[in-house]
């Protein structure tokens, strides 16, 4: 892209002594560097997206005799879907001639006028709404999940982060990596991974109609991504069974109940996207006590709870064989920067809907956890059967003459057949819990949004009870 600067530097050589070339080159071969240094912030932005050479605005295309001029024929714009490609997207303004003071400012696209071929944008800083041509808009990746590439610091390449604001003056994005570090990167070194919805709770009527009309697990997962949410990450139940067998002791000095470090690393390698598992897999949501929605990570889990899940997972794999079984653990359901975790939190109603069952990891800590209580209420909303995994859990032993559970084809939709394959035939028992926001002085807005979504399952017109009672079955 910079190669053209040298050639044009030759042409600017004669005018360089008079200072009228504005950086097009006072000496042979210096045009490309000098021109770029003298660009305005808006011109550097255009240069970054390839709309401008290092020597200034591109020359106009020669017009043949009889060819209509700009006043005779409107410029043809490429076809686009405004709602998908432009609406509410952040942009930078550039190359404006009539309002140069707006060049380099950020704005949000609101509307598109088909007659005038202009976009209505709201400019930051209280500068109001402006009608702007497409050629003067540069879409930025602020708020998106991005991957770094082509950096001199090789160790940063392929790192995933959240893209912050674009510094138009220096032409650098502020990237926040998953570990909290900040990196400045040019637009050319930033690759879009995904744009997630991270503020609006999922599960509205339109989305649920789409999810419930889906043809199997893969179609449901496609719908989740279609709504701009990440597909959940899952853990094979037999991986937890292996943990319980191979790592029966914690071995962390001073923390007898901490997860075995080596075992946690082994488990982490088994985490996989739900889009990559067999379509007939049975998904089981594990509700755990925690202080955040997406937590705890495997290394932060309690050893006794991992052992309990390992025993349960081993029993369940045998019971449902040959159907694969995967667990959705709150702490492994998503990874990445804050935007990705917030988006996963918003998608909680969809994740619960994907599962055939919800298992509550019983403990005093579970009752005290706002997020765990929200899980249970969301299961009621999604009509997902709930089971309690007791602290002193011991897997049931199958008797030799016991009637086998009917087996279905491995590729069949597990959610459709779950009613005939319950995890327990025990009688339902009541479980009374507090509301998610109970005891919190400043609850998370997303927690309140999820609680409001879950409350849709309660009878219309009836008052909300302070402590709802749910129906669960005990796993023994």
From TrEMBL:
Compositionally biased spans, kind Acidic residues: 68-80
Q: Where is the composition biased (Basic and acidic residues)?
A: 1-37
Its recorded name reads Uncharacterized protein
- Which superkingdom heads the taxonomic lineage of this protein's source? Eukaryota
Q: Which organism is it from?
A: Cladocopium goreaui
UniProt region (Disordered), positions on chain: 1-82, 457-476
């Amino acid at each position: 892209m910079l190669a053209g600067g040298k050639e044009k530097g030759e042409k600017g050589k004669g005018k360089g002594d008079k200072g009228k070339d504005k950086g097009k080159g006072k000496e042979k071969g210096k045009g490309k560097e000098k021109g770029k240094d003298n660009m305005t912030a808006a011109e550097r932005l255009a240069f970054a997206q390839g709309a401008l050479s290092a020597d200034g605005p591109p020359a106009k295309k020669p017009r043949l005799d009889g060819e209509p001029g700009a006043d005779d024929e409107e410029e043809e714009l490429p076809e686009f879907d405004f709602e998908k490609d432009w609406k509410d997207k952040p942009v930078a303004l550039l190359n404006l001639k009539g309002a140069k003071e707006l060049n380099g400012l950020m704005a949000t696209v609101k509307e598109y006028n088909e007659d005038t071929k202009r976009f209505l944008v709201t400019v930051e800083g209280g500068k109001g709404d402006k009608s702007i041509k497409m050629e003067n808009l540069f879409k930025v990746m602020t708020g998106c999940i991005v991957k770094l590439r082509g950096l001199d610091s090789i160790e940063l390449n392929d790192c995933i982060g959240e893209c912050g604001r674009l510094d138009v003056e220096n032409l650098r994005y502020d990237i926040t990596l998953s570990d909290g570090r900040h990196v400045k990167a040019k637009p050319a070194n930033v690759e879009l991974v995904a744009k997630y919805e991270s503020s609006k709770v999922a599960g509205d009527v339109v989305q649920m109609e789409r999810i419930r009309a889906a043809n199997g697990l893969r179609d449901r997962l496609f719908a989740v991504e279609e709504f701009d949410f990440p597909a959940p990450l899952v853990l094979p139940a037999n991986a937890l069974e292996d943990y319980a067998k191979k790592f029966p002791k914690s071995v962390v000095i001073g923390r007898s109940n901490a997860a075995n470090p080596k075992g946690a690393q082994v488990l982490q390698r088994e985490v996989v996207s739900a889009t990559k598992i067999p379509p007939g897999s049975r998904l089981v949501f594990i509700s755990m006590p925690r202080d955040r929605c997406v937590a705890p990570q495997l290394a932060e889990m309690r050893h006794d709870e991992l052992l309990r899940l390992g025993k349960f997972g081993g029993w369940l794999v045998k019971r449902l064989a040959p159907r694969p079984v995967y667990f959705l653990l709150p702490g492994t359901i998503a990874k990445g920067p804050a935007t990705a975790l917030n988006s996963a939190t918003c998608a909680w109603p969809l994740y619960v809907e994907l599962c055939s069952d919800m298992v509550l990891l019983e403990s005093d800590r579970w009752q005290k956890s706002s997020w765990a209580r929200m899980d249970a209420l969301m299961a009621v909303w999604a009509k997902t059967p709930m089971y309690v995994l007791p602290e002193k859990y011991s897997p049931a032993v199958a008797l030799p003459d016991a009637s086998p559970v009917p087996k279905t084809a491995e590729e069949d939709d597990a959610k459709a057949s779950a009613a005939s394959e319950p995890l327990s035939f025990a009688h339902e028992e009541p479980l009374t819990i507090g509301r998610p926001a109970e005891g919190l002085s400043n609850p998370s807005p997303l927690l309140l949004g999820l609680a409001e979504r879950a409350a849709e399952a309660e009878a219309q017109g009836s008052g909300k009870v302070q402590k709802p009672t749910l129906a669960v079955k005990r796993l023994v």
